[in-house]
Amino acid sequence: MDDDPTKMGNQPALTTSSGTVWLVTGAVTAAISIVLLFSLQQVNSSGIAIAGIVVIALLYVAMVEVRLLVRGLRLRLILLAIGFGLLTAVALGAVLVIAASQIV
After folding, report:
1. What does pTM read for this prediction?
2. What pLDDT was estimated at residue 74?
3. Which site from 30, 35, 42, 80 is most exposed, i.e. has the minimal number of CB atoms within 10 Å?
4. What DSSP state is assigned to residue 8?
5. Is the separation of the CB atoms in 87 and 63 below 8 Å?
């Protein structure tokens, strides 16, 4: 049953992709997140948005480095998926912290 195509670990994005799809998706997500956080910086000047922008940019750079330097296909794809997840989590976390600081 290890070849079950419905298992998450057996999806093409984690088994046969070159990793380009993760970089393109990550670039679009990073760009949207950076624009959003830059806009929120105008509302809340506590530095949370700038810190989020810096971390998102660094995570995307790390994704590009993983794509270029990691030779093992499976490991590369897993690391890219983790990087993408972290990138989105940081963006969401920063937005939620800024929103919570405006409520209080």
Report:
1. 0.83
2. 87
3. 42
4. G
5. yes
